Amino acid sequence: MTNLCSQPPKHTSHRNAFGKFREGDPQTQPFRTVEEAWFWTIAALTARRDGANHRAKIGKVSRPCEPDDILKCLDGLYRRTRVDLVHARILRVWGERQVAPSSAHPLEKPDACLWREAMSALEWPLRAKGIIL
Asked: What is the pTM of this model?
């Protein structure tokens, strides 16, 4: 009879028991900023929509999460009324452009304000999960 405790688990997760992504994993690199994480998420979702099979551990840099993990954080903020649908729309529009709106441009000023609010709200949950430094 084999000892089941001595065998490695068949399915390993990249999260610890508290749902936080493992820090210090030499194979993954957390994002430096919330904007970097958001732009990566939108690029991954766009690639997925266009038929690519985008995964966190595949590519030039291995990331500590999947794009859906970042969307779940945004969804949680929406459900707790920390962000509104207009914030999500601004994140999508400017995320697809892969550039943040600039408050220096008069036409982008309202979007820049909503962008900053959404980025500020999204930063804490991503930092708490170890997705950003």
From this structure: 0.77
Helix (H, G, I), strand (E, B) or coil at 21: strand
CA 112/CA 114 separation, integer angstroms:
6
- Per-residue tokens: 107: 């036409």
Any residues with CB less than 8 A from the CB of 62 and at least 6 apart, and which? Answer: 27, 28, 29, 56
3-class secondary-structure state, position 120:
helix
Question: Would you mind telling me the total number of residues written for the chain in this entry?
Answer: 133
Q: Model confidence over 84-126: pLDDT tens digits?
A: 999 999 999 999 999 999 999 999 999 999 999 999 999 999 9
Q: Encoding tokens for residue 40?
A: 């990566």
Nearest to 131 by CA among 11, 17, 19: 19
Q: What angle do CA 43, 126, 90 make, to 5 degrees?
A: 50
Domain boundaries, the chain: 28-128
